[in-house]
Write a structure and sequence with these properties.
The structure holds 2 protein chains of 2 kinds. By secondary structure, chain A is mostly beta strands. Helices cover 10% and strands 34% of the residues of chain A. The longest helix of chain A is centred in the C-terminal third of the chain and has 12 residues. Chain B is an alpha+beta fold. The chains are: A mainly beta, B alpha+beta.
Chain lengths: 278, 81
């Protein structure tokens, strides 16, 4: 029996079954498992039972977890019901990888915005965590990349050139723009065009294995360089230097610390199908 | 070197007390289980001489800490720059 749309004779009449309506949820981490860190405004794995975000509302500073709908989308109704006509700030972005690397911000005025005066912040119709409102550090990991095998990406909207747009970074940016408008990967210049001041909604994706290192913007190879060594050092989930600040809104970011170079096209398609970036 | 607008303190205790004033004003934390522990935090200008502690300005601090001042903080240059 087909699992697609089909007609079946039951009791003398045809009943149409739409398998899509009851199809089990399949997330990007079901297809490409074993991520090291995974943050998103959508559900990434069918086995993940936690929430997406923990939010503080401005009216009384109370906090509440916000989860997902059965289809994997962020539960926007729960978010707006909780926040009301006020502002909502992200205190925690839960790690969906299963490794418990939740990104938190314990200082109120440094928390990024998710609801502004009752309206969920979005990019291309999908909820987005807005760093422009606070523009400050979100979380720091003492996390080390032991090998050069990696696939890393972030879906974000860069809103201002000349500001930090380093979703995963530290003083030596793992992946992202620094305030000099150069894209760094493994702390090295990785952008074929040198300075890049392009703004807008982008998928920035980097792959690394022992022989090949690539950087893609919206599925276009933008690589220059490279000699990459294992990345050692602290990195921040959303980089910041107080003098420059973070720029933009973020929707998703995942690191696999293993060789997924061969999966790049599939991963890119999965992301772009959901976010409609390019 | 970075230039900031905010509030400076000669001891960490003074900065701690300023932070506490802000927490009290805004009722933070609401619950012991909350992630949010402070309204604002202070930082340490350890490369300056003399060393000092400071809070970066935010308009929400005006009713508690008053008008900010401008000051310089010596920072380690980020590796990428």
């Amino acid at each position: 029996m087909s699992l697609g749309n089909s007609a079946k004779n039951i009791g003398g009449f045809n009943a149409v079954y739409k398998a899509k309506a009851s199809a089990p949820f399949v997330g990007i981490l079901d297809l490409y498992p074993n991520a090291k860190i995974a943050f998103s405004v959508r559900k990434l794995s069918s086995s993940y039972t936690g929430n997406s975000l923990r939010v503080r509302r401005s009216s009384d500073n109370a906090e509440q977890d916000i989860g997902f709908l059965p289809n994997g989308n962020l539960d926007e109704a729960a978010l707006t019901t909780f926040v009301g006509a006020n502002n909502g700030f992200v205190t925690t972005w839960y790690d969906q990888s299963g490794n418990g690397n939740n990104a938190i911000q314990t200082t109120a005025i440094r928390q990024p915005l998710i609801v502004k005066i009752g309206t969920v912040q979005k990019v291309n119709g999908i909820p987005a965590v807005d760093y422009d409102s606070a523009g400050l550090l979100f979380h720091t990991y003492n996390f080390f990349i032991p090998t050069v095998d990696m696939l890393i990406y972030h879906v974000a909207e860069r809103t201002t050139a000349g500001k930090v747009y380093s979703i995963f970074g530290s003083g030596n940016t793992l992946f992202g723009y620094f305030s000099n408008n150069i894209l760094y990967f493994y702390g090295r210049e990785a952008w074929a065009g040198g300075f890049n001041t392009t703004l807008g909604h982008t998928l920035m994706l980097g792959t690394a294995n022992p022989t090949t290192y690539k950087v893609y913007q919206n599925n276009v190879d933008k690589t220059v360089f490279l000699s990459v060594a294992p990345y050692s050092g602290r990195f921040d989930f959303v980089n910041n230097y107080a003098s420059t600040g973070q720029s933009g809104k973020m929707q998703e970011g995942i690191i696999w610390n293993l060789n997924r170079t061969a999966d790049r096209t599939g991963i890119t398609d999965n992301i772009n199908t959901y976010y409609g970036i390019f | 070197m970075a230039f900031f607008k905010g509030y400076t303190y000669t001891t960490e205790q003074e900065a701690f007390e300023a932070r506490e004033q802000c927490d009290l004003y805004y009722g933070i934390p609401v619950s012991p289980d909350d992630i949010t522990k402070n309204w604002v935090d202070y930082e340490y200008a350890h490369l300056n001489t003399p060393k000092f502690w400071y809070i970066i300005y935010d308009k929400s601090l005006l009713p508690i800490l008053g008008q900010p001042i401008e000051f310089e903080v010596i920072t380690n240059a980020p590796i990428n720059e």
